[in-house]
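We append the chain.
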Amino acid sequence: MYYGEELGLGDVDVPPDERIDLAATRTEPGTTWWERSPSRTPLPWSDEPGGGFTTGVPWLRLGEDTARRNVGAELADPDSVLSCYRRLITTRSAWPSLQAGDMTPLATDHPTVVAFRRGHGDGSVLVALNTSADTATVAAAELDAGSGLEAIAGTRRDLPTAVGAGGMLVLRPFEACLLVEAGSG
């Protein structure tokens, strides 16, 4: 996780005369890929002037979406990027297989679904990710789900419903979901 990612912050358009990345000043003009200033702006804590970070002038400008993308606003929104990170980190802390498990890729017939199983000791967690802007449906059998699956966490609060052994897992656009064998959660 990189600074600001937990809020869904994007790069900020920093004009060349405001950039402070010294290493980037030593590159050829127009080599913007090297410039790190756009991703090093202050973390906004609130929608106050200065993002709640400072009452003065910050070293780099804040993004235009600071009123919406700040720690205070995202803590209050259960569907925010920050809330999603908090749910996923809590889940990772509760499941040893997500901390130290082996990873086994699973082949699916769906071209936009990436799936793998993390195993540790007697438990395992299946991770399924839809990398598309379209809904993706995968058979539970493709996910090696003998007794069916139940979702324990995901990128959305409203998790997919339990998937029986012969059922289908439906992933919404760009959704990721962590699942366990039915009855083991």
In short: The longest helix spans residues 81-94. The domain at 96-181 is CATH 2.60.40.1180 (Immunoglobulin-like). The two ends are 27 Å apart (CA to CA). The chain has a mean pLDDT of 85.
